[in-house]
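Whether sequence alone determines local backbone shape is best considered at the level of individual chains. In the encoding step, the backbone of a single protein was reduced to a row of integers, each denoting a local shape. For completeness, the protein is quoted in full, as a sequence line and a line of structure tokens.
***
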Amino acid sequence: MEKQLTSRRLVLVPCPFQWHVTPMLQLGAILHSKGFNITITHTDFDFLDPSNYPNFDFLEMSDGLCEQNISSHNFIDAISGFDVNCKSPLQESLARKMEKEDRNSKISCIIYDEYMYFSKEVANHLGLRSIILTTSSAANMLTHQAIPRLLKHDHIPIQDSMMLELLPGLQLLRFKDLPISNFGGLLHKTVPSPSISLLKEDQSCMSWLDEKAHNSVIYVSLGSIVFMDSKEQEEMAWDLANSEQPFLWVVRTVSLPEGF
């Protein structure tokens, strides 16, 4: 059985955003430790340096998108763009790879991010198994299933007058309770995992944090693609400064307002 496992290759197709790529790479590391050969696909947007991941093979897909498409204002367009532009490159690349594969590198399955749904069609066309990886919580997935029904009955966009009404099919929730985000204390690690990131991790803040009292530091991170104009950025910066509390703000250096 062990010999059979080591002869199988898994193709992982992450959505090219930090919070989706990282768990996919972590999954790849775990599967590799169990004896699987791993191929990671990546687009022009999420270029990965293969030298940083010596245990993985990489397969590039052209996404045909510009930086302007990859923003919080165009997220749906970007996902649609991946579906349109990446399907053929992935299918053609895997077909060529399968023609040359030997028994020690035979592709047995495609594991794809839920947003890279074109991968399912590619897998079906090539006669491969496929598995979806979702990085959302179970509660979030439950609401995803309810959204088509809510759209059908014109409940979305949600009107202010409906906020306290119970959700059809989700009677324990009101419209205002739709769990679309989490805010509170940081969640602890439940399973050890390798440190894998698209970006170079900066640990310099750790010694500074160790000097602060427990629960005394304000942590602010709005994600890697959220767009804020200069006025909003400046207001947030001075609100944090005027709070007179120590804070850790995750922000691109180039977008810091004057005076910071």
